[in-house]
């Protein structure tokens, strides 16, 4: 969702900005633009609907010189995606250019006030309103751009990450954030600003994460200046960037999504490294060790998350309850934040998020904190907003996930939650020690079994994808912890192939979806559960009786479901509760190949964003 890149230094800004935008493409966007201040004090703005490559084509014969510039990929919120609404936006005088990620909620009121004073607006965006508000403050209060930005931001509600440049000031870059993320890279007499660290990788390893309601000024030859919008000076906290170039490149795969699917044996191992001690038969989650007592004494444990992370949370709730006897509620962060939830100071809220920047999840955390609850995080992106605002947490260590459809982040989240459930089992003594040892031993084998699953699934998922590529609907069914797998499988298909798909608990089929079943409806069963196996067999029979196409994910050695299925994908035998870590893999591959056969843009599906930083 909207990407921001800015540069100031001695080098040509344009290639750095374009390269940065390309690295942010994974976030999802529909238009792109750049503003450059050249040595003749001309502020050139180029923007276009479409991809960064369209912007490059557009600027081919243009003046792209300048050592300072700002660039943006826009994911439309106010006004359709077109050239006019694309960023950067210029102030009325044409002196200031601004890029913005987020939503200014009271922009209409501000716009009216400015219109009453003679301002005219070219676009339908909240961003053009903001740049004019800043200029208005600058002119009426006779202050510099840094101060004008600070003052103006006191008048806006909503979320923003902004960067500004100004004619006549080729040595100064201004930026600020609230809600939407922003990181600053500090080089040798040069600075980079970006929505996340990916554009900065390889350019510098010194970064500062800007906090909410902070305004920043970088001036060549001076140290970075940071203050709150209330005018309190802040000392910047410089950190070392923990990302390398290799981890954000495709490494020989056709798409990031495929690379990330194939990384899972390694990423799940990385998630468990130093935490799962198969030799000792123990689990340690250092990040939340100090909070274990609080967790055990919690009145409620509530997981909040969105999208795929919510599915992981649901898997986790089954495991925690089963191993530790502790009840866990799983909530959509977007619902939780608005329904005035009953939260007690002795509740523990666990926020799960790949990006660590999802606006709804951040808002849910705020509410939980206001009510005094302890908030823990399970995040992938190190240094992300959620990892910073939570009391403690566990990183998933899956490495950067670039494909919009989440894959390796999901299995990493499930791996963390599985270890968490086992740790709670150790602490509560709810299941016998011998069972805990078995669980730990088996979890240690999972990365190898993911590898086997990938090998076994590759050809068969391609074959099924070829058959399924023209269907209009698909139904995914599973029971217990395979129900979230069904949800996740359906979500993957929807996200990247645009085929309508639904996930259901298998037994719920008879309460509605069964009416949809005919020869054109593929039904994907996740039938690995031993305890409910016979029940699933009956569900498969019900679909078969109505001529539905049956694709099943079963445990190796299966007979009954296999016989009734049109296509079968076998996964290695494992603990029933670990099936999500394996059964999800062929569903990821299936969605991937279907999307490829349909000619879809796998890594950047239409209308979707990787990091949903606005509501
Ligand atoms: C977006 C992404 C999904 C992701 C969801 C939650 O919708 O496209 O892949 O699951 O946001 O994101 P988070 O970063 O909080 O896990």
Supply the helix-strand structural class: alpha/beta
Say what oligomer this is: single chain
Helix count equals 18
Rg from C-alpha positions? 26 Å
The main sheet comes to: 8 strands, antiparallel
Uncertain spans: none
In which order are the strands of the major sheet placed?
3-2-4-1-10-9-11-15
| Overall pLDDT level | 95
What portion of residues is helical? Answer: 25-40%
Got a strand count? 27
Strand content: 15-25%
Shape verdict:
globular
Which ligands occur here? 6-O-phosphono-alpha-D-glucopyranose
Whole-Å distance between the termini?
Answer: 11 Å
Write up this protein:
With 615 residues, this protein is α/β, with parallel strands linked by helices. β12 (214-219) and β13 form a beta hairpin. The chain contains 18 helices and 27 strands. Strands 3-2-4-1-10-9-11-15 form an eight-stranded antiparallel β-sheet, covered by helices on one side. It has a seven-stranded antiparallel β-sheet with strand order 5-6-7-8-12-13-14, covered by helices on one side. A five-stranded parallel β-sheet has the order 19-18-20-21-22, sandwiched between helices. Helices cover 36% and strands 22% of the residues. α4 (126-141) packs across α5. The structure holds 6-O-phosphono-alpha-D-glucopyranose.
Summarize the structure.
This protein is of the alpha/beta class. Helices cover 36% and strands 22% of the residues.
Keyword list:
615 residues, alpha/beta, eight-stranded antiparallel β-sheet, seven-stranded antiparallel β-sheet, globular, binds 6-O-phosphono-alpha-D-glucopyranose
């Amino acid at each position: 969702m909207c990407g921001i890149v800015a540069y100031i230094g001695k080098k040509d800004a344009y290639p750095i900005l374009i390269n940065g935008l390309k690295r942010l493409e994974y976030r999802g966007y529909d238009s792109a633009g750049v503003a450059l201040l050249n040595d003749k004090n001309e502020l050139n703005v180029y923007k276009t609907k479409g991809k960064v490559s369209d912007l490059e084509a557009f600027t081919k014969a243009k003046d792209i010189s300048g050592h300072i510039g700002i660039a943006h990929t826009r994911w439309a919120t106010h006004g359709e995606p077109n050239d006019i609404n694309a960023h950067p936006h210029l102030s009325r005088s044409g002196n200031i250019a601004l890029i913005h990620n987020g939503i200014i909620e009271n922009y209409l009121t501000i716009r009216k006030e400015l219109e009453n004073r003679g301002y005219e607006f070219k676009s339908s965006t909240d961003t053009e309103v903001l740049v004019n508000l800043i200029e208005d403050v600058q002119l009426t209060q006779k202050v510099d751009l840094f101060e004008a930005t600070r003052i103006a931001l006191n008048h806006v509600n909503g979320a923003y990450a902004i960067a500004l440049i100004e004619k006549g000031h080729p040595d100064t870059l201004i930026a600020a954030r609230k809600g939407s993320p922003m990181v600053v890279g500090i080089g040798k007499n040069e600075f980079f600003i970006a929505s996340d660290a990916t554009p900065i990788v390889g350019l510098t390893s010194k970064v500062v994460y800007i906090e909410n309601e902070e305004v920043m000024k970088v001036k060549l030859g001076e140290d970075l200046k940071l203050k709150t919008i209330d005018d309190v000076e802040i000392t910047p906290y410089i950190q070392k960037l923990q990302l390398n170039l290799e981890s954000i490149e495709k490494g020989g795969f056709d798409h990031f999504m495929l690379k990330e699917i194939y990384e899972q044996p390694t990423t799940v191992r990385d998630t468990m490294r130093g935490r799962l001690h198969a030799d000792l038969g123990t689990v340690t989650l250092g990040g939340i060790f100090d909070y274990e007592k609080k967790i055990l004494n919690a009145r409620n444990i509530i997981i909040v998350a969105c999208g795929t992370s919510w599915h992981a949370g649901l898997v986790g709730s089954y495991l925690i309850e089963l191993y530790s006897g502790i009840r866990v509620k799983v909530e959509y962060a977007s619902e939780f934040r608005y329904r005035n939830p009953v939260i007690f100071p002795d509740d523990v809220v666990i926020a799960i998020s790949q990006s660590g920047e999802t606006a709804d999840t951040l808002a849910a955390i705020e509410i939980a904190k206001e009510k005094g609850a302890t908030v823990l995080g399970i995040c992938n992106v190190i240094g992300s907003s959620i990892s910073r605002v939570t009391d403690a947490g566990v990183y998933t260590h899956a490495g950067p996930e670039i494909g919009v459809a989440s894959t390796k982040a999901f299995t990493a989240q499930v791996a963390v939650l599985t270890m968490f459930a086992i740790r709670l089992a150790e602490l509560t003594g709810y299941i016998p020690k011998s069972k805990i040892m078995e669980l730990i031993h088996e979890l240690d084998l999972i990365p190898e079994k993911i590898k086997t699953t990938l090998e076994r699934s590759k050809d068969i998922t391609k074959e099924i994808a070829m058959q399924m590529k023209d269907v209009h609907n698909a139904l995914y069914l599973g029971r217990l912890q395979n129900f979230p797998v069904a949800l996740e499988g359906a979500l993957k298909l929807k996200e990247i192939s645009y085929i309508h798909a639904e996930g259901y608990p298998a037994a719920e089929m008879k309460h509605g979806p069964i009416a949809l079943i005919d020869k054109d409806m593929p039904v994907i069963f996740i039938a690995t559960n031993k305890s409910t196996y016979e029940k699933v067999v009956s569900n498969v029979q019900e679909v078969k009786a109505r001529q539905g196409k049956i694709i099943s994910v079963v445990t190796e050695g299966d007979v009954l479901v296999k016989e009734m299925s049109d296509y079968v994908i076998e996964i290695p035998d494992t603990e029933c509760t670990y099936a999500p870590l394996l059964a999800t893999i062929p569903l990821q591959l299936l969605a991937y190949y279907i999307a490829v056969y349909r000619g879809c843009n796998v890594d950047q599906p239409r209308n979707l964003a990787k990091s949903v930083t606005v509501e």
